Amino acid sequence: MNSSSGSAAGPSSGSGDGSAPRRNSKRPKYSKFTQQELPACKPILTPKWVISVFTLVGVIFVPIGIAALMASNNVVEIVDRYDTECIPANMTGDKVAYIQNDDIIKTCTRNLTVPKDMDQPIYVYYQLDNFYQNHRRYVKSRNDAQLKDADQANKTSGCDPEKTTKDGSPIVPCGLIAWSLFNDTYNFTLGNKNLSVNKNGISWKSDRDHKFGKDVYPKNFQNGTLRGGASLDLNKPLNAQEDLIVWMRTAALPTFRKLYGKIHQDLKANDIIMVTLENNYNTYSFNGKKKLVLSTSSWLGGKNDFLGIAYLTIGGLCFFLATAFTVVYLVKPRRRVLLCDTG
Amino acid sequence: MLSSSSSSPSKLSLPLLPSMASAAGDHQDARLVFVGDPDRSSSPGADVAASNAIRTTKYSLLTFIPRNLFEQFRRVAYIYFLALALLNQIPQLTVFGRQTAFLPLGTVLLLTAIKDAYEDYQRHRSDTAENNRPASVLPLRSQQAASTVRKKWKEIRVGELVRVGANETIPCDMVLLSTSDPTGVAYVQTINLDGESNLKSCYAKLETAALAPEALAGAIIRCEPPNLNIYGFQATIELRGDGPRIPLGPTNIVLRGCDIKNTSWVVGVAVYIGMETKVMLNNSGAPSKRSRLETRMNREIIVLAVIMVGICSLIAISTVIWLHSNRDKLDTLPFYRRKDYSRVPPRDYLYNGLGLEMLFAFLKSIFRFQNFIPISLYISMELSRLMQSFMMTQDESMCHEATGNKLKCRALNINEDLGQIKYVFSDKTGTLTENKMVFQCASINGIDYVCREPLIPGEIAPHPTIVDGQVWRPKVMVNTDRKLLRLLETERDTEAGLYAVSFFLALATCNTIVPQVLDTSDPAVKLIDYQGDSPDEQALVYAAAAYGFVLIERTSGHITIDVLGDRQRCRSRMFSIKTLKGVMLGKLIPCMHRMPLAYLFRFEVLGLHAFDSDRKRMSAVICCPDNSVKLFVKGADSAMFSILDRSFDLEIVSATEMHLHTYSSLGLRTLVIGMRDFNGREFENWKACYNIASTSLSGREDLLGDIAIQVESDLRILGATGIEDKLQQGVPEAIESLRKAGIRVWVLTGDKQETAISIGYSCKLISNNTSQIIINSHSKESCKQSLEDAITMCEKLTISRTQTDGGSTGSAIVSVALIIDGPTLVHILETELEDGLYRVATTCDVVLCCRVAPLQKAGIVALIKKRTNDMTLSIGDGANDVSMIQMADVGIGISGQEGQQAVMASDFAIGQFRFLVPLLLVHGHWNYQRIGYMIIYNFYRNSVVVFLIFWYTFFSAFSLTSPITDASGFLYSAVYTALPTVMVGIYDQDLSHGALLSYPQLYGPGLRDEHYNLKLFVLNMLDSIWQSLVTAFVPFLFYSGTLDDSSLGDIWIVSVVLLVNIHLAMDVFSWNWILLVTLWGVTAIAMGCIVAIDASPSMPGYWAINNLMATKLFWLCLLCILVLALLPRFVVKAFASYLQPDDVQIVREIEKVAKRKHDGALGAPLRSSLDHQQPKS
């Protein structure tokens, strides 16, 4: 933008200077501040500036877009929906009954083909759908003081309706979020070799260090009438229960991925991974989908074409606008317009 | 002859005055003051204030909280927010944390309360200082009667005798009993009361003035109960038990707040104290008005409210649909789980059935979206206006050099109205003109004298006045006419000379002027300064002095005039008594025969009939040194010619009438002087009536008026005067600027038509090209006819004008002026003819209303106000303009010669008419643009966040979760984005001072509502929807499911804060360091707050922002949001300012070009480049 500094004192302001000797004490003290004549920069959108701004945005956005698209293309992602597949054929009519029946063994095996070479680390996610982790009732149903400090285990305010056991003793960790902890498990084998899943470091370090106490142990957890999900290891402090920590970072959208673990091993194209999973988590009652995701990562994170496309589009649009404005500027040079006569 | 007005025969009753007997008698509610006996005066039965302490504070420590809250909650919006916060305390409805719900309202209330408390504390301090000022009280009952006792002001009680020394302030309203002057005169300055700096005289009654204070004990004063009429007081004093009741009037009371001047001491008895004093009763605050933008804003607030109700209903219905479709699963649904299994038997947790859930969802969404109607806008607007007012008062270009009068902002909440004024109603005298009257012409005995020759300062007048060996000279030199001087000098004995002598005697006596003697550097020379209420009178008395009739002294009973020079001359000539006697037979000459040998003449003032607007004249009954009694009358010509004795002097009358016509066409103010001799019987009759009337307790003014009308008749004409009313500096230019700006200037004056038209010419309101439509009618029918004629004429002229415009633009444009007078308006205002007048008046370019009464002025303003939405402004300086000032949308008072009444009623007070131009064209323009933008921007900035959360409800099962933390949600409008808009509202300038003055047309945006209208509002709302969509969905798409809600909230709040502040930055016209520092400083602080909030492990979103900032994706997401969100706005701005630039944009570019070329001075190149452009269109 075109700019210049220095006060734009009009012709009238000069009158104040000539009269200096007659000034008396009641007069306001003259200063650029009180006269509202501070030096100021007055930007004007001249064609030159407009065209430069559009071009600049284009120049920045298009390369980023290309880089992002390339990064996204390099990411290999395997997505497998298994909630429908892991139900015995005879029970597809009543999935809820199936999942709620503790007597049925829920183990299920899936074979995944690696489409392209995948470099380590390979991230293992589970993806749930139609699960409103951001529902107001759900988001608020936790108590952060209790999670951090062993002395405050009795603090369960806000945890309704999963606050205490029937006899009134506090649940640690309390609340709907912890109660509904995801409890499907995955085991991977490549050929006959077990692919170990590293479950350390899947949560935020900040959460492990400061948010979840290292001396807080689960109490009365999942002892109620209705089991919501996974149980916790009573002998591990909360800050070591990384699945819980990940789960308690509630997702922003009803379709979400959460990190399950990392595989530190390169995979080759056309490798077939056998996944042995336990299909425990009840998403059938609300028609939620469950997917297993294996993904490599780039400097931008996971696979995401949208970012690149968005940047390319905006960059292109700005180039177009710059051209359009130039054309307008050349074809229709500014007509001198006089001040509207308001009379 | 002793002054007879004071010892009145109260038993006398005349058929003339039937109401008098009862009026003089005891009043039921009259206040009894026992002089020197405060205990009895304030006995329990008497309704008397307990102490002289005053309290102007609104609050006490105890009442502050309830009362201040009550005052604040008179704003309906606050009640709305309180109701929301209270409802939020119901568990089912909790959206925010319970305490945070009160935060926004609480902050606003607290800030306002602190401001109020501070102001009140200042008032309290000044009250305390005032209450503890020392006063001297004469204790009559104690032993040492003569000595005074020091008391504090607050300890003074009714009935106590108070002694006030020179230059001291009067502590309470008191009746003067005696003064250092043996005649009982005291001079007071009422500058604290009404702002008039001239001295006014007050009198102690001669009966009391002579007495020692002790002798006054036991006197009883009967006076009216306290009231707020500063200029009225009626009471009687009874010196001893059954003594005569001596009447007391407004001149016998001195009011709290006045200063004693030129008098070494006065003693008075306190009658009204403390809060009952007239000054306290008159102490009303600034008028409270609402600006037009704020009124307009209500329309948009209603639109917003409707949208909000729509959104909330949508959410309520969706919630119910969602709950209904999931009804079977709700009990166990992991993220809802209706059943609380820890209870036996399990029961519903926070679920009340579909109906109630719907209601609760509705209410909850109202809480969630309450910011849609921005509460912070009110406080931002108040802060901005406060500072704007301060900056306006500091503006040097509106400071009157001569008096140091700055702009005063009395109303703080209508600054932006100054930018939208369409009609200016201006008073003439004192507003367009200086109200410094200069005596210019006299017509005496039918001969016209024009006073042109100036007296050289230092040159002594032809007849130096010598008192005690010192030369006393009038302070102001007046031009004189040699011919007239010669006439007075040498041909005094001729008939013409005698006429002239009487004429000047009338000028010197028939007035209320008080001469004040000032010392000069030369001990032998003193200056006489004539102090008085009316500048016309001052001019006349100075003129009389210039011709040798020097008013030297005025006491309550007599005036002393030095007539034509020194002692020698007086003694030697003795005014040729013989010749005089000869003329006396012709009953012409005043009172000069049997003149005492003194060189100063004493004239007894037997009675004074004050000026009133019905009679339009005043008269004085004077007993001349020869004991003859004369009545001198001066008044407006219309009021005088009807009471002239037309039986003779016909040529003189007609000659005078002709001269008067000439004078008024020159723009002079005219007065006619008349005289009448009283014979003995007439005099006795008058005296009796006058005494009764002037001792009457109630209705005194009416009675005196009746007497005046009776006695002012059968006058013989002495002559007429023409006084020039000088135009104020810069008035024609100011009016031209205003008219170029598209403002219509109407002049409403009490003056004659000819005077009004001549002022119209000199103000450049009317030019030779102007066709004048004059309506003077005296019946309704003729009014109707003339209005119809006027309408046809207007139409014709307008058509011809458009034709001329179409043909050749170069030809002079014919303008139309409507001139209408007060008597005609009587038939038009408040009848069905008003519409006709409105049509004519609005087609005409200029409207002059002459001879209008104060209420008619208000009527004309109302005429426009009723029929259009255009803003009106009234400007005036006198008491007669008060009604008009209060009627108009914006009232401007001129702190000038005629006192402070207009200023007290006004919203803004300026020193000179020409300051109206910077006030409207510069500050009005700025303020309108700033506040208009501020409102639009505040709507936008709150709705971005509201829409953001609204979109999110579709992804959270309509449960109204907000990913943004409560703290940030609150701080967003209070801290993150609040200060920049306030500062932009104070300091941004779309154009410089100079440019706005150079191109008055730039006032147009205000007249056309360009900065705040429905279109702008809708566009900005659409923009806010776009921006919220971008902010909401870009992260969804960039992160595709891997995002947790705290991080989303952080992305959103960071983006929105940056977005909203960059949006503001894009619209700032002029970046000075204040704006730079606030805008980017606040943005930095906001970022700091967001990081700080996330640094608390007890918040669910602990460290989210830090984890986010460590990823590149976050920065790319942010960049994409900002660019994409602002792109449409930038494109529209860029293309609009290129393809369809508005006036402001053009002048900004001209300024820039001029600056680049000339680096500094921009006036000349600006003009030339503009001129250069004009032919091209």
From TrEMBL, chain A:
UniProt-annotated location(s): Membrane
Residue ranges of the region described as Disordered: 1-33, 143-166
Signal found in the keyword field: no
Biased composition regions of type Low complexity, renumbered to the chain: 1-21
Gene Ontology cellular-component annotations: endoplasmic reticulum; Golgi apparatus; plasma membrane
Highest taxon in the source lineage: Eukaryota
Transmembrane segments: 49-71, 306-331
Family of the protein in this entry: Belongs to the CDC50/LEM3 family.
PANTHER family: CDC50, ISOFORM A, CELL CYCLE CONTROL PROTEIN 50
Entry protein name: ALA-interacting subunit
Automatic annotation (TrEMBL), chain B:
Cofactor(s) for this UniProt protein: Mg(2+)
Parts of the chain that traverse the membrane: 301-323, 939-958, 970-987, 1017-1039, 1051-1066, 1073-1093, 1113-1132
Localization annotation: Membrane
Domain P-type ATPase C-terminal positions: 903-1141
Annotated keywords: ATP-binding, Magnesium, Membrane, Metal-binding, Nucleotide-binding, Translocase, Transmembrane, Transmembrane helix
Main location: membrane
Record-listed E.C. numbers: 7.6.2.1
Positions of ATP binding: D427, K428, T429, E537, F611, K634, R669, T749, G750, D751, R851, K857, N880, D881
Superkingdom, taxonomy of origin: Eukaryota
Residues binding Mg(2+), per UniProt: D427, T429, D877, D881
InterPro entries: ATPase_P-typ_cyto_dom_N, ATPase_P-typ_P_site, ATPase_P-typ_TM_dom_sf, ATPase_P-typ_transduc_dom_A_sf, HAD-like_sf, HAD_sf, P-type_ATPase_IV, P-type_ATPase_N
GO biological process: phospholipid translocation
Pfam families according to UniProt: Cation_ATPase, PhoLip_ATPase_C, PhoLip_ATPase_N
Name this protein carries in UniProt: Phospholipid-transporting ATPase
